[in-house]
Amino acid sequence: MAKFSSRKKSSIWVPNGCIFFLGGALTTLLLLWGLSSFIIPIPNSDPELNPVSTKLSSLQFPTNTDAPETTFYDDPETSYTMDKPMHNWDEKRKQWLLHHPSFTVTTHDSKILVVTGSQPKRCHNPIGDHLLLRFFKNKVDYCRLHNYDIIYNNALLHPKMGSYWAKYPVIRAAMVAHPEAEWIWWVDSDAVFTDMEFTLPLNRYKDHNLVVHGWENLVRENRSWTGLNAGVFLMRNCQWSLDFMDVWASMGPMSPEYEKWGETLKSTFKDKVLPDSDDQTALAYLIAVEKKWADKIFLESEYYFQGYWLEISKTYYNVSERYDEVERKVKGLRRRHAEKVSESYGLMREEYLNDVGEWKRPFITHFTGCQPCNGHHNPAYDAMDCWNSMERALNFADNQVLRVYGYMRKDLLNKAISPIPFDYPNVV
């Protein structure tokens, strides 16, 4: 305080008017410096301050405003379609993020974009549209709980890329439209998130660009086309992925070699029944035969990245009972909380899952073969098995959401909902 007060005293060398002028100028400079520190943060090397500086730097351009600098979007050669290759995508993404610092990835799991969709026409099955709505609602719930963006597409972006091939033009366009996304996560319309708390262990995939549920020995050694499932996969938004999708799609109906690829895949994978070239068998071929891609592909089998519904759909009651047992022992898991912090309770629960063993909730239940939209289910099982299993899965997942709101279904095949007691499941 003494130093500041001494500056206010008159000097025999400087007139009083100059002192007032200099004081005002100094005050203005201090004010401008203070304001600029909120706009252009001072660089620091302290890791504890980095999150603060990141937040301040984001104020340069609001997230809903584009930067004035020219980016790849201003290049007329930039294409969203699969018939024109993208070059130098990693560098283009990097430059775009430099111009938009508020979108810079700050954590390993903060930039996931979930993509899903269905056909552009109404369902032939009378309850198909209702089921698709519930399937989509389930994905929206999961994304809201984990702060992920989601895209639902029902437009055919390439006239020849229909059926199971239709997703690749959508994923390609999503990558270009979302350079801020580190991962594009495709989830089939008939797949249900049945563990709403579970978060992807992205650190496991830090050296990979594509994650698919599957088994190495079934794909590489047994040459089985069912050794993996291409209905749910995680793909890094990078040049490798764009190049890989170009090769992958070249085995599909947009290629003049489509029929030849069907013959090649059927002769390579003896258990393949259909003669057409499908995306799942094509992926298995690229892993087992075209091995230059395999090092960047992770076949996940340690948890249900996607699980076949016939294996797990009738276990939900048992899973719920085992989880209730854990919660009766751990009071913290029974605590009521806001939905925004639900993810932290999922992390807390992970510490106690060893007590549950094989009854851990399946992450994603995939209703492969049920065809909820057209109703042409696989004849290997009864249609009612499909519909009842879908109802159980959707209600099982919805219970995990409703519970935060104070409600749940006691019967997974009954739409009746009732309030839950304060200390549930300790009090019934």
Secondary structure layout plus pairing:
Layout: H1 2-6, H2 16-39, H3 50-57, H4 89-99, E1 112-117, H5 128-146, E2 149-153, H6 167-177, E3 183-187, E4 191-193, E5 210-214, H7 216-221, E6 228-236, H8 239-249, H9 258-268, H10 279-288, E7 297-300, E8 307-308, H11 309-312, H12 316-329, H13 331-334, H14 342-350, E9 364-366, H15 383-402, E10 407-408, E11 418-419
Parallel strand pairs: 1-2, 1-3, 5-7, 8-9
Antiparallel strand pairs: 3-6, 4-9, 5-6, 10-11
Helix pairs in contact: 5-15
Detailed description of the structure:
The chain has 428 residues and is an alpha/beta fold. It has two domains: 78-189 and 199-301, Spore Coat Polysaccharide Biosynthesis Protein SpsA, Chain A; 309-419, no CATH class. Helix content is 39%, strand content 11%. The chain contains 15 helices and eleven strands. It has helices at 2-6, 16-39, 50-57, 89-99, 128-146, 167-177, 216-221, 239-249, 258-268, 279-288, 309-312, 316-329, 331-334, 342-350, 383-402; strands at 112-117, 149-153, 183-187, 191-193, 210-214, 228-236, 297-300, 307-308, 364-366, 407-408, 418-419. The protein has a six-stranded mixed sheet, with helices on both faces. It has a three-stranded mixed sheet with strand order 4-9-8. Strand 1, helix 5 and strand 2 (149-153) form a beta-alpha-beta unit. The termini are far apart.
